[in-house]
Structure formats: structure tokens, C-alpha cells
Amino acid sequence: MRSASVTRKTKETKITAEVNLDGGSVNLSTGIGFFDHMLTAFAVHGGFGLQLHAEGDLFVDCHHTVEDTGIVLGQTFAKALGDKGDIARYGSFYIPMDEALAFTSLDISGRPFLVFHADFQQERVGNFDTCMTEEFLRAFAYHAGITLHCSVLYGSNAHHEIEAIFKSLGHALQQATALREGTLSTKGVL
């Protein structure tokens, strides 16, 4: 079973996550309604089982909770993937969401990097600062060991644009974590 759990506690947040790459129930709570919606979309579209509970200093703002959730989720995915052998490694996916179109391409390479292109016209969706989308993705990519490229090609509604990003990330990860025989690398290891 390709699953793992991680708990991280700081003076700003306490987060526990459990991921099953091969499916399962989705149950999460971060205290940020829109972020819960995005993480649910990510897990459902990726076909991942995800249990996540976050408590953070939301009286400050959503920054610490969102970024630390990215850290913990990235660590959990890295742990579930183990040595990254026997996976497809690469994944790419477009998601249209009404007027918006987003694209994600990734490589589970062990070489973390983020390229992010989006220009949100709204600063907030609910109690989620739209700029935190990039912060979450950076934390996730760096702690999962993923080269991650995410772009909103066009759109005007930040809710649609961000949701398309999270859904495309889920689909691209589903492709990349799919089982295959042997390590997809000329080096023989990732």
C-alpha cells in the first residue's frame, strides 16, 4: 500500500496529513473554507485518499496555515512514494473551468522547482488570499521533490482559475504516480 502520514507542529500551526496514493476517503479541515474546497478537488481528481487536519493562527491571516499545509502534504507524498521507483514519473493535464483554463505539468524527479504563472484579478476568494496559491504550490513541490509547472492560460474569476489549477494538479499527479515496471531514469534511480 502506497500510503504515509506526517504530523508537523510549530508555534503557528499543527497539521496532520495521511495520504493513500491508490485511493480512499477524503476528509479534511483547515479552517479555511475555500482551501478545503481546493484540497478536496485536488484529492478527488487525483484519485487519492486524503485525511488532513490543520489548526493555525488564522487570527493573523491564512498564510501560515496554507503554506504549512503545503509543506506537510509534500512531505506526506514524498514519504508515500518512497524511492519513487516503478512510477510513470511525469504528468500533464489541462482543466477548463468555465471561462478559465489551467495547465499543470510535473516531474517527480527529486529536483524540486516551481514555475507559476497566474494573474488573479481578485485578491481573495472567501477567506483565502489568492496569492497563497503560489505559496502552497511552492511548499508542496519543494517538500515532495517535484518539478512543478502551473499556469492559468486565461480566465477572469479567481475561484475558477484556482480550482482549475488544483484539479489539473490532481490529474497530473495521478498520471505521474501511476505504477509501471522499473525506474524511469537513465541513471536507474530518482
UniProtKB/TrEMBL annotation:
Highest taxon above the source species: Bacteria
Pfam families for the chain: IGPD (PF00475)
Principal cellular location given in the protein's record: cytoplasm
Entry annotated with the keyword tRNA-binding: no
InterPro entries: IGPD_sf (IPR038494), ImidazoleglycerolP_deHydtase (IPR000807), ImidazoleglycerP_deHydtase_CS (IPR020565), Ribosomal_Su5_D2-typ_SF (IPR020568)
Keyword annotations from UniProtKB, A to Z: Amino-acid biosynthesis, Cytoplasm, Histidine biosynthesis, Lyase
Gene3D superfamilies named among the record's database cross-references: Imidazole glycerol phosphate dehydratase, domain 1
Any one GO biological process: L-histidine biosynthetic process
EC numbers for this chain: 4.2.1.19
A single MF term (Gene Ontology): imidazoleglycerol-phosphate dehydratase activity
Catalytic activity: D-erythro-1-(imidazol-4-yl)glycerol 3-phosphate = 3-(imidazol-4-yl)-2-oxopropyl phosphate + H2O
Location in or out of the cell: Cytoplasm
A GO CC annotation given for this chain: cytoplasm
Pathway recorded for this protein: Amino-acid biosynthesis; L-histidine biosynthesis; L-histidine from 5-phospho-alpha-D-ribose 1-diphosphate: step 6/9
PANTHER family documented for this protein: IMIDAZOLEGLYCEROL-PHOSPHATE DEHYDRATASE, IMIDAZOLEGLYCEROL-PHOSPHATE DEHYDRATASE HIS7
HAMAP family in alphabetical order: HisB (MF_00076)
Family the UniProt entry places it in: Belongs to the imidazoleglycerol-phosphate dehydratase family.
Protein name: Imidazoleglycerol-phosphate dehydratase
